[in-house]
Write a structure and sequence with these properties.
homodimer; alpha/beta; Molybdenum Cofactor Biosythetic Enzyme, Chain A; Molybdopterin biosynthesis moea protein, domain 2; Molybdopterin biosynthesis moeA protein, domain 3; 5 domains; 10-stranded mixed beta sheet; 19 helices; 28% strand; flat; disordered C terminus
Chain lengths: 648, 648
């Protein structure tokens, strides 16, 4: 679409093409010592200035001799040479004077005996040049050692030195300036002081990410001071920077208004290349040429900024410094450690006509590599840090059904064979197991999908273990009927790991004086519920019925949070007035807690759990004093005195 | 084998285990800013110090309103609010005062009309907290962000900043000292001056390689001055270094005698861990603990030193700085860009009981990825620089037959689909095509296997093209009968690319006054032959017969070189007195040349050559003025006036 005189809403490949067409040849060269040129690309072919070796050298360990002195020698008819006619040489030593070398294995040193002096017995006759390496046998003067376009490597550094090359011509790396802009962003150093409380202010973190990613790529980055969101100020800075730097990055704030400013600024200073890329996240990126210098405007949200850095900035840096931009360049930019095919554990819908960058975690269950997306849309890079890798979804597919095969560029290399996947009821105590597992060389990935979600996942073979606290209101027991329903005859083991208190959580001091379920139906308070299938929701529904109430009596009944902490946090923020949750969540946020029930929390293991290499680490962690003490310290938990295993 | 009080001739895995057992826990920690900690490993779990966001923020672009003001709103029954009852908010902006946000899509701004002021029409009713993000929704105070053992990444740098973390505890990187030793090595700076001619002296290049590889790994390396091969001097330096550094590397010279010294030195200063590793190259490595500091003695030959750095030094660096040493650590150390399975194009024998490190090149011919080893045993890293990757062959297999599948750790990522594999008669003019091919985005890999070897390879489907100049002495024609024999009915195309002069090459000034073949049989001169199957050898045999001579008449007949330059170089060095070769080889080395024949040199293409994506690049290169001029300039070549194609 070209409406404003330049393309808008371009595909990622079109954006790349526009950048490459404009800047792909703008390379400079410089001379430098090979040892300083690691990470640079050679700008011309390199030829040896030396012969290596520069002398005739022995090819073996043995004795340098005159070949004619060995005439007729054989194992049956050895020839003995006097001391002045042989000299020891190691491989690589010069053979001055001699014209051949007899291998030490073909000789025998005869000690002096009686009147006969020491001598060398030789069992093989030689001809001139035997076992002698010619001058230049490794590298010949004038031999081509590397081509224009080859990157400098440690091997080339060493080779060039031996070949007498003290200086090479390489393509220069551009210098880049990062200009943060925005009225609501706070410099990092200030942010760390911890006294910025004004709502709406956020840390200027994009320069920290950019500095780090540039460092990992091996390119220098300067960071300018934060500029206010004023077009004139920004324009001045960009114009000045475009004269001094090879690449200018402008980090936009997140307010929508500013993006229009940026395009106008760049259009007035130079020429816009494109605006808006059909990529999620990362859409509000744009690029321009100002005075022949590439200027790329990065979106303000951290994850959008990261994607724009990988997909637009990295290839420009590479092209400007002489590298061929490989088709896999985005994986390279994100520091990928290799690719894997994994099976999507949940259905995923992408926005129409947009490529999408998913942060995923993976687990190997029964030989199938599964993956699931981490929550998107956050203002920090938590999901990117937590992910095992990135799946770049092309715009061709709108819907990807559960089970779709997707390609994951791994950003870390976990030992999937030692990672257990837990799906089920959320509880902070389960998270406390992770550290211990890792210390034992294993790992635990946790998906909080609620009690029923976990048992269903276990039933589909999509987890190694689940956890549930599902009340069967018919008989007042926990879990058994649900487990039977999902297990369908399979022998799943159960393990009670603790009892915990559930109750009504309200704001500090209980300002609305909520004392029971009737108060939740009063209309004064807004409730925050848990998601369908959560054991806590099942408990809540049961308690409502016990109190003669229905879901329609509770304002906020349809509002759901996925974990205890999420729900409790909404109460702490005043977004909701009450929720049902565990005491540990209330205590963590200093909230008021009205105890309602004490319930058993059980792990449920797949029928083949015991065979898993990481099973022992999980059991050891559960039985460790370290974990038991940490759980007890949280408050609201009661650990069973014994191991509490209960087999079906 | 333990004979000297410590293990000798250990396997690579035993060597690693001995190092890890001894030094695997010797880690130190230090505090640093997250931005400085890239490449370091976290020494403790990291918890957020902040809630992010620290204010209730809008989750959408829309209008912050009081939820009660929207009661009853629906698409059919919209509610209109006056200007003081709504305010625009972007995603992430604070919602001070309001308790919910209506999405802009659910509203319509009504302009002022007549007496009615501007207002906001709302089409959906809200409850408290709708579209509002709670404090801490992204990151909660106290939430675990990363674990002990996690490496710092750009994402974590950004996340930690947002979470208020200004300092982290990481495992320190050890400081390493590299001590070059030896009486025959020359400092790099001196070597580059170009005035070192004494036979036996070589460049001290291992420190250059080590500095570069350490830099690529992200570890600091200090390099000490070259020490003479004197035990007392070395012992003093090692002892001093072991007190100041976390790792000490001693680079041995190559003389066999010294290795015994080293072991004695280390045994006297501390405790030997092992000596000799069953690895080729790299066998003479050893390790010791001196004052608790790891001391690793690296072999002197550059390739051996490189392998020891990858396989012994790298894992120690990693373990000391908190990384888990992955099973693939050698591939990591060499900077591998991924692995491939390839089929060995030649049979390969490994030494008994030794693992072997092969430098290989690869090519994709008709969908099969083939690989072949590059020449070993050189004193420079040419083969390592030239290789596409490394195959680490385990000691289990002594013989690997042609066609064996081997795993190649790629050190570069060539576009195999655009690389043509040439096997055949060596000629420097073919090498001149490579630069032009690469400029066209293609590549040419060259295996000099002689004319018949090339046709045979083409016949086996192991090349895209071959080259031959084989004289059929029955009818005096070139190539046709041989091509027919190997093509077995397949339609191979031929292309004459030049005529070249062959002749007898002797030392400058022709000191032995050789004028023809009779002189080669005189017994005064030693000949250097070409390998069986080489067109030059076929010509030589023909010329001998024409002159009434036999192979037994020629001293040196059994001595073979694989290329023209190799053979000519032997004459230039005095290792041989004469050879048969092309004028270009003689001219390159300033040797005497007696013309004997003018022969056609033809390329022979596989039947599917034209379909190859890189075929056009080859033809374009052959037809380019650039190549034709470069070939003509070499002397002894005659390019055909027209294209010179001759189809069968």
């Amino acid at each position: 679409m070209v409406r404003a005189g330049y393309p808008e809403h371009v595909s990622l490949s079109d954006a790349l093409r526009l950048l490459m067409d404009e800047f792909g040849d703008a390379r400079r060269t410089e001379e430098m010592r090979p040892g300083d040129a690691l990470g640079f690309v050679l700008a011309s072919d390199v030829f040896s200035l030396r012969n290596v070796p520069h002398y005739t050298a022995s090819a073996v360990d043995g004795y340098a001799v005159a070949s004619r002195d060995t005439a007729g020698a054989s194992p049956a008819t050895p020839v003995t040479l006097g001391r002045e006619k042989y000299s020891w040489v190691n491989t690589g030593m010069p053979v001055n004077g001699a014209d051949s070398v007899v291998m030490v294995e073909d000789t025998s040193l005869e000690p002096a005996r009686g009147g006969t002096p020491e001598g060398l017995k030789i069992f093989r006759s030689l001809t001139q040049g035997d076992n002698v390496r010619a001058v230049g046998e490794d590298v010949m003067n004038g031999q081509m050692l590397a081509c224009e376009g080859d990157p400098m490597t440690p091997a080339l550094v060493s080779l060039f030195l031996c070949a007498g090359i003290g200086s090479v011509s390489v393509y220069s790396k551009p210098r880049t300036l990062f200009i943060p802009t925005g009225n609501e962003i706070v410099p990092g150093e200030r942010w760390l002081l911890g006294d910025v409380f004004e709502p709406g202010l956020v840390a200027e973190s994009n320069s920290a990410y950019a500095s780090s990613i540039f460092s990992s790529w091996g390119y220098p980055l300067d960071v300018g001071p934060i500029l206010p969101d004023e077009p004139r100020v920004i324009a001045e800075a960009v114009e000045r920077a475009s004269a001094e730097y090879g690449l200018v990055l402008v980090s936009a704030g997140s307010a929508k208004g500013r993006r229009d400013h940026s395009a106008d600024i760049f259009a007035s200073l130079g020429r816009m290349l494109f605006r808006y890329v059909r990529m999620k996240p990362g859409r509000p990126a744009m690029a321009a040429s100002v005075g022949g210098t590439p200027v790329i405007c990065l979106p303000g949200f951290p994850m959008s900024c990261a994607v724009a850095l990988w997909s637009l900035v990295y290839p420009v840096l590479r092209a400007l410094s002489g590298w061929r931009v490989s088709p896999d360049y985005i994986s390279e930019a994100m520091g990928s450690r290799g690719n894997l095919e994994a099976s999507l554990m949940v259905q995923h819908s992408s926005p129409q006509g947009m490529a999408e960058c998913l942060r995923v975690k993976c687990a190997d269950v029964e030989g199938r590599l599964l993956c699931w997306p981490l929550p998107t849309g956050a203002s920090v890079l938590w999901a990117l840090a937590e992910a095992d890798g990135i799946a770049m979804l092309s715009e061709e597919h709108l819907e990807r059904p559960m089970g779709s095969a997707i390609r994951v560029s791994l950003t870390r290399r976990p030992d999937f064979g030692m990672r257990l996947l837990f799906q089920g009821s959320d509880d902070p105590a389960v998270g406390l197991l992770v550290s211990s597992m890792r210390g034992l060389g294993a790992d635990l990935a946790i998906r909080a999908v609620g009690s029923m979600g976990g048992l269903a996942a276990l039933g589909r073979g999509e987890a190694h273990l689940a956890a549930a606290h599902l009340l069967d209101e018919c008989d007042g027991t926990y879990n058994t009927s649900y487990i039977d329903r999902f297990a369908k005859g399979r022998r799943w083991r159960r393990r009670l790991i603790f009892y915990r208190e559930q109750g009504i959580i309200t704001a500090i001091g209980n300002p609305m004086e909520i004392s029971g379920f009737a108060d939740l139906a009063s209309g004064r308070a807004v409730f925050e519920n848990r998601q369908p299938g959560a054991g806590t929701r099942v408990l809540f529904d049961y308690m409502l019925r016990e109190n003669g109430l229905g879901s329609s009596d509770i304002p906020g009944y349809d509002r759901v949070s996925i974990t205890h902490m999420e729900a409790a946090n909404k109460v702490a923020s005043g977004v909701a007035d009450a929720t049902l949750g565990i005491k540990a969540a209330a205590d963590a946020l200093g909230l008021h807690f009205i105890p309602i029930a004490r319930e058993p929390y059980e792990l449920v293991f797949s029928e083949r759990f015991d065979e898993h290499p990481a099973a022992a680490a999980l059991i050891a962690s559960l039985e460790s004093a370290e974990w038991r003490d940490a759980v007890s310290a949280m408050g609201g938990y009661e650990l069973p005195a014994e191991e509490g295993r209960s087999d079906p």
